[in-house]
């Protein structure tokens, strides 16, 4: 159920990573309904003062606290919407549509597999949500986050994962933390040979990825080469987020165009073409 | 005091003067959680063609200053898919349906119009002779005789009201509107998008895969208002005005320029309830300014 909301902002915090913020808002229904992979479309410019930018912009759900009725997003400042959001104060209103997304991450917490999240930049927050959801449903599930950035200070979105028992592998271009190199350098050793899964049973990996398109492409191609199932969460620009503009499409392997906002944003890697 | 918002577009009665702009509201069902369609003046659905169309490759849209460029390329499932898959949802609501029809030949337009008429699939047909994103689309609305040819071909196969949707990408829109009226159009809608492009300096590429697209949103409002004003001076049939309408004040300006009804287009991407809220806002404007009927506004600025 998509709702149009004007929710009260509870907090806006700057992260150590320059230009990155987490914003928490009060909306019990979204906190209850949102699943990992869902997003919201934030309108930070109103029709009444339509300035240079008029469209809503999509942001992944990062955390939910259904008991407190709170939801959190993580964003980095690029343009008009995110610049406005960075200036919000507790008590201000967040205008959004949500939860959005027709197909979200599909993970079976009980499966004897190694759940591997591979993320970059603002692609990490939905994976954090997914990792915690799997762990909450099955504390003995084997869950790993591999995330990357140019440098250690730009790694974001890992909040609470260690405490939840998720293994974390950082990859940095400059080697300032963890593996020196890309997320695929962190991922490759996990894919071959087959890993011992939860409960000691032999199980392969299931990969879930979200981040810049070139990164997801590399992850998807590596997984396909290893016959490893991989789900990708596409981050094409989404002018409406609700299926009415047909502007957000992805070309699928069967040649048709799919609306990433309502048919996605999550797709099996085998369905995606990369241009 | 209640004010009258009801208007007529040919034989079509609209409860409020606000419809949706084709291509900016899907086929109605996408917003089922948010919008009660029976509160709209009419629903104008996405372009529906004779055969299924896949549309243009991405990137199809980008944001520009106070506007949006799009090159969707008329992605749709075709007329039979519309009748089977889209129409049943729309018909659950007491609201007139306007189907937007593009085509590559007068025969294409007539074929879809005939199927819509036979199936009860529309209450009015909007001829999209002005889409800038496909070849053989724009061409018709650039020449009076081609416009007349399409209108006449459709007139011959249907009794439904025919709305000719015109393009601003012409030297003078007036002779084209006149040709549409003379050929039997019951109304004129304007404007379709304004052709343009956007370039990415960082990647040194066009931002749209199609290179060019149609500009919509507040950026084109002055162009649209002038087109409405000029055509209102030229024809006697009603005009549906659109182009950058974001709120009730914008809509009132179009009525004052001579539009009988208006369409909420790009604003739906920001607020899918816009067509309903704009109609409420027009009612407020009428009351606050001592009017009782929306017709008192139509063409009041000369
Ligand atoms: C499903 C989905 C989920 C998303 N989740 C998040 C999230 O959780 N957190 C988050 O911060 N962002 C997220 N994004 C991306 C975010 O929606 C965009 O970055 C958005 O465009 C920012 O809006 P803006 O108005 O601030 O900037 P815009 O005006 O849209 O952007 C200004 C300029 O910067 C460029 N630009 C925008 N974003 C980027 C980028 N990421 N990298 C390089 N150039 C860019 C644009 O092309 C434009 O030219 C998500 C996108 C999608 C599709
Ligand atoms: C994404 C998009 C798709 C559109 N598709 C169609 C279409 O299929 N047929 C049509 O006649 N007009 C189409 N239009 C044009 C609109 O109906 C309208 O004429 C135009 O956008 C101007 O109004 P606006 O500024 O309020 O959006 C489209 C516009 C947009 C932004
Ligand atoms: S963003 Fe508009 S259809 Fe997907």
Describe what this molecule looks like in 3D.
Chain B: Its main location: cytoplasm. Chain B: It is found in: Cytoplasm. With 275 residues, chain A is of the alpha/beta class. Chain A folds into 2 domains: 4-100, Translation factors (Elongation Factor Tu (Ef-tu), domain 3, Beta Barrel); 114-271, 3-Layer(aba) Sandwich (Rossmann fold), CATH 3.40.50. Chain A is 18% helix and 32% strand. In chain A, α4 (183-191) packs parallel to α5 (213-225). Chain B has a single domain, classed as TIM Barrel (Alpha-Beta Barrel), CATH 3.20.20. In chain B, the strands form 4 sheets. Chain B has an 8-stranded parallel sheet. Chain B has a 4-stranded antiparallel sheet with strand order 5-6-14-11, with no helix packed on it. In chain B, α2 (106-119) packs parallel to α3 (144-155) and α3 runs parallel beside α4. The longest helix of chain B has 15 residues, at 274-288. The complex binds flavin-adenine dinucleotide, flavin mononucleotide (FMN) and FE2/S2 (inorganic) cluster (FES). Flavin mononucleotide (FMN) binds next to β6 of chain B.
Helix-strand blueprint:
The complex is a heterodimer of chains A (275) and B (302).
Chain A lengths: L2 E12 L5 E7 L1 H6 L5 E4 L14 E4 L2 E3 L4 E7 L3 H7 L6 E8 L13 E7 L3 H14 L4 E8 L17 E6 L6 E2 L2 H9 L13 E6 L2 H13 L4 E4 L15 E3 L5 E3 L6 E3 L7
Parallel strand pairs in A: 8-9, 8-12, 9-10, 10-11, 12-13
Antiparallel strand pairs in A: 1-2, 1-7, 2-6, 3-4, 3-7, 5-6, 13-16, 14-15
Helix pairs in contact in A: 4-5
Chain B lengths: L6 E3 L2 E3 L3 E3 L22 E3 L15 E4 L2 E4 L8 H12 L6 E5 L4 H14 L4 E5 L15 H12 L6 E4 L8 H9 L4 E4 L3 E4 L1 E2 L4 E2 L5 E5 L4 H12 L6 E3 L6 H10 L3 E4 L2 H4 L3 H15 L14
Helix pairs in contact in B: 2-3, 3-4, 6-8
FE2/S2 (inorganic) cluster binds next to loops of chain A.
Family (chain A): Belongs to the PyrK family.
Cofactor (chain A): [2Fe-2S] cluster
Protein name (chain A): Dihydroorotate dehydrogenase electron transfer subunit
């Amino acid at each position: 159920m998509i709702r149009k909301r004007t929710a009260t902002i509870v907090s806006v915090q700057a992260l150590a990573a320059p230009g990155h913020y987490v914003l928490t808002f009060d909306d019990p229904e979204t906190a209850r309904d949102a699943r990992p992979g869902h997003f919201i479309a934030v309108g930070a410019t109103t029709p009444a003062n339509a300035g240079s930018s008029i469209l809503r912009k999509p942001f992944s759900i990062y955390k939910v606290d259904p008991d407190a009725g709170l939801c959190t997003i993580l964003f980095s400042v690029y343009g008009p919407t995110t610049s406005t959001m960075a200036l919000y104060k507790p008590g201000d209103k967040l205008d959004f549509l949500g939860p959005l997304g027709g197909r979200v991450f599909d993970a079976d917490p009980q499966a004897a597999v190694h759940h591997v999240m591979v993320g970059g930049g603002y692609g990490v927050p939905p994976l954090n949500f997914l990792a915690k959801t799997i762990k909450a449903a099955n504390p003995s599930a084997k869950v790993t986050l591999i995330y990357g950035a140019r440098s250690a200070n730009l790694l974001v979105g890992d909040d609470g994962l260690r405490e939840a028992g998720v293994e974390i592998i950082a990859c940095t271009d400059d080697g300032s933390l963890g593996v020196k190199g890309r997320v695929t350098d962190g991922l490759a050793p996990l894919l071959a040979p087959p890993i011992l899964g939860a409960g000691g049973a032999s199980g392969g990996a299931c990969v879930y990825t979200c981040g810049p398109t070139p990164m997801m492409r590399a992850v998807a191609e590596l997984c396909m080469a290893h016959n490893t199932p991989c789900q990708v969460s596409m981050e094409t620009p989404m002018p409406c987020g609700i299926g009415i503009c047909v502007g957000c499409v992805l070309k699928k392997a069967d040649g048709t165009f799919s609306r990433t906002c309502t048919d996605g944003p999550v797709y099996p890697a085998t369905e995606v073409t990369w241009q | 005091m209640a004010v009258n918002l009801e208007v007529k577009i040919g034989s079509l009665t609209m409860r409020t003067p606000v419809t949706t702009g084709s291509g900016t509201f899907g086929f109605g069902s996408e917003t089922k959680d948010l919008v009660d369609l029976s509160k709209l003046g009419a629903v104008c659905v996405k372009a529906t063609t004779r055969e299924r169309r896949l549309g243009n490759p991405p990137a199809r849209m980008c944001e520009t200053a106070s506007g949006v460029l799009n090159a969707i390329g008329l992605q749709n499932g075709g007329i039979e898919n519309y009748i089977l898959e889209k129409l049943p949802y729309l018909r659950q609501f007491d609201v007139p349906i306007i189907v937007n029809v593009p085509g590559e030949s007068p025969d294409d337009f007539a074929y879809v119009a005939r199927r819509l008429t036979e199936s009860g699939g529309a209450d009015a047909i909007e001829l999209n002779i002005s889409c800038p994103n496909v070849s053989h689309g724009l061409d018709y609305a650039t020449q009076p005789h081609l416009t007349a040819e399409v209108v006449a071909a459709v007139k011959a196969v249907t009794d439904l009201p025919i709305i000719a949707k015109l393009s601003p990408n012409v030297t003078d829109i007036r002779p084209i509107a006149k040709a549409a009226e003379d050929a039997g159009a019951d109304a004129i809608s304007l404007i379709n998008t304004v052709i343009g492009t956007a370039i990415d300096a960082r990647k040194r590429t066009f931002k749209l895969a199609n290179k060019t697209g149609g500009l919509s949103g507040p950026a084109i409002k002055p162009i649209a208002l002038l087109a409405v004003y000029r055509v209102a001076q030229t024809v006697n049939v009603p005009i549906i005005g659109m182009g950058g309408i974001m709120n009730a004040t914008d809509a009132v300006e179009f009525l004052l320029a001579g539009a009988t009804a208006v369409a909420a287009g790009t604003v739906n991407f920001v607020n899918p309830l816009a067509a309903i809220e704009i109609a409420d806002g027009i009612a407020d404007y009428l009351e606050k300014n001592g009017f009782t009927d929306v017709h008192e506004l139509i063409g009041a600025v000369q």
